[in-house]
Structures are given as structure tokens and as C-alpha cells.
Write a structure and sequence with these properties.
With 184 residues, this protein is α+β, with helices and mostly antiparallel strands. 41% of the residues lie in helices and 18% in strands.
């Protein structure tokens, strides 16, 4: 059955907007803009590469559904739907370092007990955190995770590279100033 047939069967009127006129979708466009701004903030905070945009959107919407809305008189969308306030104790900083526990069955005696990953969201199918290992390029959902919310895989790497470059520039400039000051 096509979508149009389904709409007709349920007496739902379908309307389209004119091309290139997003202002006709005022509420939807504002919500999309709000989601985009939250995603931009999440990714910028931890200098996340743009290829994480889909995970950032899912995380932003997950968080927004647990955030009070003025038009709902301070209720959250989840509270309005379920009738109870959401538990926020499990929320973590998007893009932070996550140490995912490796089960005994999946490691040998000398292997590390945790893998360093990047936290990229919340699983909707399981009660766990979605973590990505940039070294192995694998995602993993786990409940047993230790978070370092103050650090980021990408900020730390960029800061290290930037520090080396800055030291080189400073050393070069200091040498030039010394030559200039000594004079003939």
C-alpha cells in the first residue's frame, strides 16, 4: 500500500509547500534549526569530525526529549508521553573519552580490561551507551563504561599537534628577535 493510499484511507489531508519556501513550514523549520544548533554545539565542544553528524543528531534529539519545554508548562516531551519525569542520571558528555569494559570471554589474561573509545550516543534498543573505537573502526553498545567527560579523543590529538607547531613558531620568532636586538 502506498503512503498516499494510507492517507486517503485514514482521511488525512496531505499538503505540500511551494519549492524553496521553507518559511511555509515555520514550526518544523524552527525545530530543525534548533536541532542543528544543538548538534553544532555538541560537536564543537569536543572538536568532533563532521562524519559524526548522524550520531550527534540522534543524541541531540534524545536529550531534547528529556528537556523541559516552556510551551508544555515545564514538562518534558517524554514526561508528557509517559506520564513520569525522565531519569537524567545516565546522561554523559557527547564526544568524551569512554573506557569500555572488555568481557573476560573476549580477552586473554594479559589483554587490557578496557578499550579507549569515543562516546557517541545512547542505544534505543538496549540499555547502554554507544561507543566508537577510532582505531578499530568498530561501534559497541555497553553498559559497563567509565567516562572521562573532560577529555576528547579529537581535542587531545589536535592540542598536541597544535602545541608542537606553536613551539616551533615561538622558537623561530625568538631567534629572529634575538638577531634583531643584537644589531650590527
Amino acid at each position: 500500500m502506498s503512503f498516499t493510499t494510507y492517507l486517503k484511507m485514514h482521511r488525512i489531508q496531505r499538503q505540500f509547500t511551494c519549492r524553496y519556501t521553507p518559511q511555509q513550514n515555520g514550526i518544523a523549520e524552527r525545530k530543525n534549526m534548533h536541532i542543528t544548533e544543538v548538534v553544532r554545539a555538541l560537536m564543537a565542544d569536543k572538536s568532533m569530525p563532521h562524519h559524526y553528524w548522524a550520531e550527534a543528531i540522534a543524541t541531540a534529539v534524545y536529550i531534547m526529549n528529556k528537556t523541559p519545554i516552556v510551551t508544555m508548562h515545564g514538562m518534558t516531551p517524554e514526561e508528557k508521553y509517559n506520564g513520569r519525569k525522565p531519569d537524567l542520571s545516565h546522561l554523559k558528555v557527547f564526544g568524551c573519552i569512554a573506557y569500555v569494559h572488555v568481557l573476560d570471554e573476549l580477552r586473554t589474561k594479559l589483554d587490557p580490561k578496557a578499550k579507549k573509545c569515543v562516546f557517541i550516543g545512547y542505544s534505543l534498543e538496549q540499555k547502554g551507551y554507544i561507543c566508537y573505537n577510532p582505531v578499530t573502526h568498530k561501534m559497541r553498545v555497553s553498559r559497563d563504561v567509565v567516562f572521562d567527560e573532560t577529555s576528547s579523543w579529537y581535542v587531545d590529538v589536535k592540542d598536541t599537534i597544535g602545541a608542537d607547531a606553536n613551539e616551533h613558531v615561538v622558537a623561530k620568532n625568538v631567534g629572529q628577535q634575538s638577531q634583531t636586538l643584537s644589531g650590527p
